[in-house]
Amino acid sequence: MLGRLSILASVKKSKHCFFKVVFFSSLAYVLAFFGTVHAGPVERMAEALRFETVSFQNPDKINYQAFADFLAFIEQTYPRVFSTLSAERFSDYSLLLTWRGSQPELAPVLLDAHYDVVPIEQGTLQDWLHPPFAGVVADGYLWGRGALDDKMAVITSLEALERLLAAGYTPERTLYFSMVHDEEIGGHQGAAVVASALHERGVKFAYMVGEGGIVLPDNPMLAGKSMALVGLAEKTYITLHLNASGEGGHSSIPPRNNAAVSLARAVTKIHDNPLPVKLVEPVTDMLRVMGPEVGGLTGWLMRNQWLGAIPIAHQMAGDRTNNALVRSTSAVTMLDSGVKENVVPQKAHAVVNMRLLPGDKVDEVVASIVELIDDENIVVKLDSWGQSPPVADLNGEGYARISEAAARVFPESLIVPGMLTATTDTRHYQLVADEVYRFRAYRVSMSDSRSIHATNERLATDSLLRAIDFTEQLVLAVAKL
């Protein structure tokens, strides 16, 4: 306000200039108030990160007003999209956009994203260089929770659509864009409800594209060359609840059968005895494509897996990131026991999250864990998200279209089929899509990629702008015959 008074004072000698200043100053205030001034895509994306659309495991902790505000923000910010495409709400907060094509007889394509994010771990807030929901742009990065997973995919889609609509583009094939609100807690009210509604309408997609692979400039397996990793599969998500029981009592007279100690032994066994290393499709496809680029003995072994599978798999297992590509993994994520320092607990509970390779069966893996624990005082209960979608067709149209768009925007990158080591809500779409591909056009270093679900999540602003270009090219590629 003081700055504005200074401006007015400096021009009071000129009535004409005075009215110009008042007019443009007032206009700026009005436009800012109604939210229509967004200097550019980076600023719009920064604003999107400021909505705390956090999915908590306990639904009572979720602030759904933030979700409603985010949806109002995108409707206001992308007027061409919401005046041209049909928009439907599911479970109040999940959005489905439909862009009708000029040739409705063609099978449609679905592009999926989610805008909910994971919470900030308690006690880590001070470790963030910039507050996680401040939407700060600094040092060439956009900082905040959702910059990589997965809010920016919603925004890049809307940016690309707004640009195409402004150019007067109309797709030949009908396109659907799902933007759901609960992927981080299973997608039961988002993707599951959207997919069920589409199934009831008889919609069947030629294929769908969801979150997954990224562009890695520094993957150690492909030294000196950038890799655009297109996911053909993802791992199956299961959680084991280990419930231990034992004798309680005063800590001055400790019993031998201590629930906390039994639980500690069990989780240590799981941690120290990882499941076997093996190569499965589509990792085998990834290695064959990379082999000629790697060259030498390693490249030859990648191409000739009848001999090279075992040594290559064990070599990959030595790297934290690549290890998840060659085995079903387990991670002890939660421990709970005891009420007081001098009371021996009678109960103890641990949570072990597992991600299973394609082909590994849930019941067989759980049986192997129970056998490994081998303790009658521990009961293992299973929480499963169900088997993930089958491996998508490497020779299918979806892979070809994604590759076509990636080659235009990332000509320096080798396009490689791969596997998402995490798990998404795409399993719900198996009702309506036989082929599920996964790709996000973010050029992200290995170190930056580890900020997903972690402290200082960030995305380089130049990568963000290229992601919009890719999304535009992807729409053009999938929307044609």
Describe the structure.
- The chain is α+β, with helices and mostly antiparallel strands and 481 residues long.
- Helix content is 38%, strand content 22%.
- It has 16 helices and 17 strands.
- β4 and β5 form a beta hairpin.
- The radius of gyration is 26 Å and the shape is globular.
- The termini are far apart.
Overview features:
disordered N terminus, 8-stranded mixed beta sheet, 17 strands, 481 residues, alpha+beta
- Tell me the overall shape: globular
Question: How far is it from the N-terminal to the C-terminal residue, by CA?
Answer: 57 Å
Q: Strand count, sense and closure of the main sheet?
A: 8 strands, mixed
Q: What amount of the residues lies in strands? A: 15-25%
Structural class: alpha+beta
Q: What would the average pLDDT be, to the nearest integer? A: 92
Q: Give the number of DSSP strands.
A: 17
Query: Spans of 5+ residues with little confidence (pLDDT < 50)?
Result: 1-37
Counting DSSP H or I runs of 4 or more residues, the number of helices is 16
Into which percent range does the helicity of residues fall? 25-40%
Layout of helices and strands:
Blueprint: H1 2-10, H2 15-33, H3 41-49, H4 64-77, H5 79-84, E1 86-90, E2 94-99, E3 109-114, E4 136-138, E5 141-143, H6 151-166, E6 175-180, H7 191-200, E7 207-216, E8 226-234, E9 236-245, E10 249-250, H8 259-272, H9 283-294, H10 296-303, H11 305-317, H12 320-323, E11 329-337, E12 343-344, E13 347-356, H13 362-373, E14 378-384, H14 397-409, E15 413-420, E16 436-443, H15 446-449, E17 458-460, H16 461-478
